[in-house]
Specification:
This protein has 27 helices and 18 strands. It is of the alpha+beta class.
Length: 722
């Protein structure tokens, strides 16, 4: 076994000293070290920043050129398709009675299947009641009902198909499909024959905005910012970002000014961007990228970081030299610190006293206090106290234990006593025979006899006061067994397992009633327990032990409630040393009754606060759940709680997490709107706090086993039946 004594650790107070020579040396060393570094850093950084910035901008212009070439190619393909359709005699000779022949002819072309760029290609003979795609034919009004354009009214839709004379692009707009899904589409309407003054048909190309975004994504490699396509009139045809910069109110004006002036810098919403663009000679469209300055200069920052690393190494070695110089000139300071180090045993002794008094709720809390003193208790370890009383008051306490066990300890408050905290990590155990062999070895060492009192082993830190009183009782038992022995607690006859009348049920009742804040019942049980102790206890050891067990049970109940709520008040409750000082049973009984009353009162107040707290949280969520920017951090800040404590508290009180609770509120509101309003699904999704329609549909179906559209139809059909 081995003993670990407090080595190193925090000072009891900060030592302040103010030697002027110290600062003179320090200032001169820092000036010599940092001035050359600062000069080299500033000049070198600006030079490399200009080089890298130009390289990045050139690379970005090449990417834009790739985007323009790809789009020009796709536009040429659409022109060729329109020409091919206009040359197909079977389509030119369309008649109302040849519906199937026209459909079959157009089906054979199947442009959308052959070219994944198109979502669909439609053919409409002007004046006809039908419109054709590669896989079906539709009555015109039925097709519009199945594919509802949000921004293209039906009357305008019919007019454009029948009377449009020039090819026309429609900007990206949402189309609601039969399954209530919403897709953003670009639409290109081309009269047939292409360029004719008397067109007899119209071809409609539908292109998913996501397809163009994917094409933009292959050329735009930055995380933020945007890649944008403008038509010849300056309209935004497509953007890469899901939350595009084009939503900014200043975007049209800023872009127009920048394109006219050729400027590469723009300001949007308070942030600086680099703008690069090209204009297509084929169709007059403009392709541009808007890159945040902070992201564009990322390579510059990497160079800067490498330079900083190199400087850090220089600084490190410079600090080493400074340190050596300080050591040479300030040895007296080190001696002063050494004197303060000698006070660490007193710090450790105080922490042991707090441990005996039951002022720690967990080993983690204890480790935080004593870690800097060289102590650490592994989780789930068996721990117990031992008290050593030396015959020789001047005996040294170093090297008391051989290798094999970790024991932390200090000289104790009683004369000639030393207290140790033995720690058995999980998977290890020190048998009683090992202690006896150790004691035999210890007696053979110079310094006289040693009597040892051993407490029982426990894992819960709240049982450590019990282990101490057991060790104290064991040490006092030397009056019967004699000195120079290892005395285990079981030998004293005070082990509660040997007491036939050990009031286990009364302890359980006290624990339950105190947690329920029932002061009247708790006090009656304490009085009954005190009566049993008087009648059945035959030793001072047993009486003190059972009184402390009662007090410890009350404190466990209090801590399980009050500390769990993170609202513990700094009240002064009895500790083990107070119990040990009392000499009459009446005094012990009154002490226990006062403790019970105080604990029940404190728990009652905390429970009242808890009910108000939970109600306040639910009201706050009712007000904020529809805000899609709402986060759990906001409610944590609102109620002054950490995220971890908030999540654990809400889950224990409601049975669900905060996210699950918010989700239920949103789904319930969505169900109400689906039943009672004709709002579009996108509007409902935004109203209840979601941003993405497809994600909402998936979550709604997981909750209700049907889609939102099916849910609305179900209630509409019930209303019709009624």
């Amino acid at each position: 076994m081995r003993i670990r004594r407090a080595k190193g650790g925090a000072l009891l107070k900060t030592i302040k000293f103010k030697p002027s020579l110290f600062y003179q040396y320090l200032l001169s060393y820092m000036v010599l070290l940092f001035l050359p570094l600062a000069a080299v850093g500033v000049l070198g950084y600006d030079h490399f920043a200009d080089i890298l910035r130009n390289q990045v901008l050139d690379s970005n212009r090449n990417h834009i050129a790739q985007i323009g070439d790809s789009m020009d190619t796709k536009l040429n393909e659409m022109a060729n398709i329109a020409t091919q359709i206009s040359l197909n005699n079977s389509l030119v000779r369309y008649k109302a009675q040849d519906l199937n022949a026209t459909f079959n002819t157009f089906k054979q072309l199947n442009y959308s299947g052959a070219n994944q760029f198109f979502y669909d290609v439609l053919y409409y003979p002007r004046g006809s009641k039908y419109i054709f795609s590669a896989d079906s034919s539709y009555r015109l009004e039925d097709y519009y009902d199945l594919n509802t354009y949000r921004n293209w009214p039906y009357e305008k839709f019919i007019a454009d198909l029948n009377m449009g004379m020039d090819p026309e692009w429609r900007m990206a707009e949402p189309i609601v499909h039969p399954n209530h899904t919403v897709r953003s589409m670009l639409t290109y309407v081309v009269p047939i024959p292409f360029g004719s003054t008397a067109p007899y048909a119209t071809v409609v190309f539908q292109i998913r905005e996501d397809t163009i975004r994917e094409m933009l994504r292959t050329a735009y490699t930055y995380r933020d910012g945007d890649a944008i396509i403008l038509d010849e009139h300056g309209r935004v045809m497509a953007t890469l970002a899901m939350t595009p910069l084009t939503n900014s109110a200043d975007f049209p004006k800023v872009i127009e000014q920048s394109l006219d002036s050729g400027s590469q810098h723009i300001q949007l919403d308070g942030e600086t961007y680099y703008l690069s663009h090209i204009r297509s000679k084929v169709n007059g469209w403009t392709y541009l990228t808007v890159i945040p300055e902070r992201e564009l200069l990322e390579p510059v920052r990497k160079v800067k970081n490498n330079a900083v690393l190199a400087m850090a190494l220089i600084v490190f070695f410079g600090i080493v030299l400074i340190y050596l110089g300080m050591q040479l000139n300030y040895n007296p300071v080190r001696k002063l610190i050494g004197k303060v180090e000698d006070s660490k045993p007193a710090v450790l002794r105080q922490q042991f006293i707090d441990l005996v008094k039951g002022r720690f709720s967990s080993w983690a809390e204890f480790n935080d206090k004593v870690g800097e003193l060289g102590l650490f208790i592994p989780d789930k370890s068996l721990c117990y106290f031992l008290l050593l009383q030396f015959e020789d008051p001047n005996r040294a306490v170093s090297n008391l234990f051989p290798e094999g066990m970790t024991v932390y300890g200090v000289e104790w408050i009683e004369e000639n006593q030393w207290v140790g905290l033995a720690v058995e990590p999980p998977g290890t155990e020190w048998e009683e025979t090992g202690w006896l062999e150790w004691h035999h070895w210890l007696l053979a060492q110079p310094g006289g006899g040693v009597t040892v009192g051993m407490g029982e082993k426990y894992r819960d830190i709240r049982d450590m006061p019990k282990s101490y009183i057991e060790a104290s009782m064991s040490l006092q038992y030397q009056l019967i067994k004699g000195k120079d022995h290892v005395i285990f607690f079981r030998e004293t006859g005070a082990d509660n397992r040997s007491i036939d009348w050990y009031p286990k049920q009364l302890f359980e009742q006290i624990y339950l009633k105190v947690k329920q804040a029932d002061a009247c019942e708790s006090e009656q049980i304490v009085r009954s327990l005190a009566t049993q102790i008087r009648e059945n206890s035959r030793s001072l050891f047993t009486t003190r032990y059972l009184c402390w067990e009662t007090l410890n049970t009350v404190m466990k109940a209090r801590m399980d409630v009050v500390r769990h709520l993170d609202q513990a008040q700094a009240q002064d409750y009895p500790d083990l040393f107070q119990v040990m000082k009392l000499t009459r049973m009446e005094e012990l009984e009154q002490l226990l009754i006062r403790t019970v009353r105080g604990s029940c009162e404190e728990i009652g107040k905390c429970c009242e606060n808890e009910d108000a707290l939970l109600a306040g949280m639910k009201q706050y969520l009712e007000r904020r759940y529809a805000d899609n920017q709402f986060t759990v951090r906001e409610i944590a800040d609102q109620f002054s709680m950490s995220l971890a404590h908030l999540g654990k508290y809400f889950k224990e009180k409601t049975g669900c997490t905060l996210s699950e609770y918010i989700h239920r509120l949103r789904i319930d509101k969505a169900k109400q709107l689906l039943r009672s309003t004709d709002l579009q699904l996108l509007d409902i999704v935004q109203t209840v706090g979601y941003q993405d329609v497809s994600s909402f549909i998936r979550k709604f179906k997981a909750e209700m086993s049907i889609t939102p559209g099916e849910y609305r139809k179900l209630f509409q059909s019930e209303a019709s039946s009624a």
